[in-house]
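Readers outside the structure-tokenisation community will struggle with the description of the input data as it stands. Showing the layout once, in full, would remove most of the difficulty. For illustration, here is how one protein appears when written out as sequence plus structure tokens:
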Amino acid sequence: MAGLYIHIPFCASRCIYCGFYSTTRADLRQRYVDALCGEMALCQPSALSTIYLGGGTPSQLSFSQLQQLFIYINKVFDVYPDAEITMECNPDDVTPEFTEKLRQLPVNRVSMGVQSFDDARLCFLRRRHTTAQIGPAVELLRKAGIHNISIDLMYGFPGETLAEWHRDIEAALALRVEHLSAYSLQYEEGTMLYRLLEKGEVEEIDEELERQMYYDLIDRLAEAGFEHYEISNFARPGYRSRHNSSYWNHTPYIGLGAAAHSYDGSTRRWNVADVTAYIEGIEQGKPRFDFEHLDEATRYNDLVMTALRTSAGLLLTLLNPQQRTYCLRMAEKYINSGLLCHIDNHLILTRAGLFVSDMVMADLMMV
């Protein structure tokens, strides 16, 4: 059993914060889809429990291109009847025409990049949609039979107040979606946002205010009946993202497309992060990728980094005696300071530890 991730790197325009590989080269879309099908043909047959079309903006592909992908998926892989099949969409792409076509695809879950319910902040991010398009997009998806909808939100914008963030949370809850992912605005090197920060044209939000925004999010979503099952992810009961959970639970996954990663338990592989080079490699029968065999220390570090992100935490019996001893020794100061708790052979981040999780996880890793 495995998950399949297909990276669709095409965007109509580029958001200022995005660090994922993407391109605005619309002329390459059909060649890219053909290359994806070519890469699929090179895969070993596998049983798929989840499929995820991410990006980029998968909703930028034409209906015939999406159909082509699913035809090839079913040719190459054994897709479970109850497989979770997710497609990322932008609100402005969700039109009556789009959802009519969506009915004819096996997609049963949609993840929509909302980011904010404030038009000024959407404009700041260079998002293409407006606040007015978000609610109608959800309604159209419902009418198309999509009963599992996730939205992404961002907080910690320059100058954003706690009251403004609270309004975004309430607007998200009013949509009655099944899943919500929320991330603080990150200034990743190489992005336009990072360059604005370097120039002094924007200023990062105060850390204490950002912390309070995160805690208020946790409390309000718990009150609304959401499970906080991963640092940035919240779901109504029964609606956790099965695909993303496979990453955190070390389920093998196959990644197709430019910059996509694959993992089989002992090896990690990643395709070239260049759409033209990716296409040419497949067309020439010489896929361009790098890979690494994971040694014991790397597998330990991966387990710490992924398991501690979840509400279940790190099951210590998954570690060998030497690793367990090392992990508990490094964790002791965080247990004593209240950032970690040790319960029933699990190490779990506390509420205070969630906000500084990167620091805690880094200290538990083997150098």
Summary: The chain is about 40% helix and 20% strand. The longest strand covers residues 78-89. The CA atoms of residues 10 and 23 lie 5 Å apart.
